[in-house]
Amino acid sequence: METENKVTEQEELTEDTEQVKRIVKVWDADYEPVVCMPLEVKVNDDFHRALKNFKFMVQKDRVLSNYKKRSDYNRRKKAEGIKKVKDTELRNKKIASGEFERELAKKKQKKEKDKLLKEKKAQETQSVLTDK
């Protein structure tokens, strides 16, 4: 009876983690969920000693550092996604108003002007070198 219950619980856990993996993969393809055993600290007489043991176990298993690393990554990816959406919306508005084409034309003119200035400076340098 005991082994049957354990097998059933293990199968349920596996099904749950598979479901979580599927949900997470839809949300963020790079993230793999971590299934861990909960930390257990026995408190006999001294609460402070138990708290100290708990902190030691958390630090030993690197629970907080892994959490911070993942949360920073997720926060950065979320911010990048939001920025990308805003940039796309702004670009679409500019395209609709015709401002996007004007900006492209200005950039092209500036590039050509810079190219001409660069060529002019190169010619001046060349003439100075040949005169000496």
What does this structure look like?
It contains four helices and no strands. By secondary structure, it is mainly alpha-helical.
Q: How far is the N terminus from the C terminus?
A: 102 Å
Total of DSSP H or I helical runs spanning 4+ residues: 4
Number of strands: 0
Indicate the proportion of strand residues.
under 5%
- List low-confidence stretches: 1-13, 18-29
The share of residues in helices is over 70%
Largest sheet, described in full? none
Mean pLDDT: 76
The coarse silhouette is elongated
How does the helix and strand content classify structurally?
Answer: mainly alpha
Radius of gyration: 31 Å
Topology as H/E string? Answer: HHHH
In short:
The protein has 132 residues and is mainly α. The chain has 4 helices and no strands.
Features:
elongated, mainly alpha, 0% strand, single chain, 4 helices, 132 residues
Task: Summarize the SSE layout with pairings.
Elements (H helix, E strand, L loop, with lengths): L1 H26 L19 H14 L2 H35 L1 H33 L1
